[in-house]
Amino acid sequence: MSDSQWERIKDRLPGREGHVGGTAADNRLFVQAVLYRYRAGIPWRDLPARFGDWKNVHRRLRRWCEGGVIERIFRHLAADRDNDCMMIDSTIVRAHQHSAGARKKGGADQAIGWPHGGLTSKIYAIVGAAGKAVALSLTPGQRADITEAAPMLDEVDPKAFIADRAYDADPLIEKLEERQITPVIPSRKNRRDPRKLSFRLYKNRNIIERFFARLKQFRGIATRYDRLTSTFLAALQLVFAIMRIN
User: Fold this and answer.
1) Residues 6+ away with beta carbon under 8 Å from 173
2) How far is CA 28 from the centre of its chain?
3) Which among 11, 158, 186, 196 is most buried, taking Cβ atoms within 10 Å?
4) E-assigned strands of the chain?
5) Rounded mean pLDDT of 216-238?
6) Confidence band (pLDDT; 50, 70, 90) for 192?
7) What SS3 state is found at 1?
8) CA of 171: how far to CAs of 81, 99, 108, 127, 205, in Å?
9) What average pLDDT does the structure give for the chain?
């Protein structure tokens, strides 16, 4: 993590100087330990000794997950965005066999599904024209793309909304039009009255494809090893935040 990246997030972490409670001298080392683990895709117990006891690092990550620390960092950075146009898409990540087996609380499936091909999770993201993520969601791998579009749309207010043909559904189109957001979504082939499409805007969809390509350079994201949704989601939020200020 560079000094400029650290300056953007350090004042929003617990244990900072002047914060209620004890002052943590190793906040930066801890964040770098978490990033290293997900970048390398290693088991927690293989974390290099320079980061300290791996059990303490994992325990602290769980504490920050439960306290919503990482989510607040992501939302703070995501609030700085350009609303001209945004795009949504999803990507499938393989869930390692070690990610299965978590206890289900209240019927929670831990966002791991059983589609054809084995255990998978699906990451959804809404990205701005600059390639910065502004919203995200995590579901089991077999979930249809259209199911997450409307809830995630409630978090943003773009002038134009770009998506592929999988998002061409009347309820979503109507919601966009009600909010005076221009839908840039190709019509399905079975539509009787295809909508006009701005290809000038639609060609920008490669931005989100490049975003997912960068995201999957983190091997611990490209393959999910975490059993709990909250842990994996927090890792995504942290990686998204660092990618925003890279």
Assistant:
1) 183, 185, 195
2) 21
3) 158
4) 85-95, 120-128, 133-140, 160-162, 182-184, 223-224
5) 95
6) confident
7) coil
8) 26, 35, 27, 21, 22
9) 89
Judge whether 82 and 126 are in contact, CB under 8 Å.
no
Task: State the pLDDT confidence band at 111, using cuts at 50, 70 and 90.
Answer: confident
Q: Report H helices in 154-224.
A: 170-178, 199-202, 206-215, 219-222
- Residue 143 DSSP class: S
Give the global pTM: 0.89
Q: What is the CA radius of gyration of the chain?
A: 19
Find, among 117, 144, 100, the residue nearest to 232 by Cα: 100
CB 97 within 8 A of CB 63: no
Q: Could you tell me whether strands 120-128 and 182-184 are parallel, antiparallel, or unpaired per DSSP bridges?
A: unpaired
Residue written as token pair 């999803």? 90
114-164 residue pLDDT tens: 766 788 999 999 999 999 999 999 999 888 999 999 999 999 999 999 999
Q: Band of the pLDDT at 166, cuts 50, 70, 90? A: very high
Domains and CATH numbers, the chain: 3-77 (no CATH), 81-225 (3.30.420)
The tokens of 181 are what? 């957001």
* Residues whose CB falls within 8 Å of the CB of residue 70, separated by 6 or more in sequence, listed in order: 64, 234, 237, 238, 241
Residues 6+ apart with CB under 8 A from 196: none
Cα 190 from chain centre: 32
CA 188 – CA 198 distance, rounded (Å) = 15
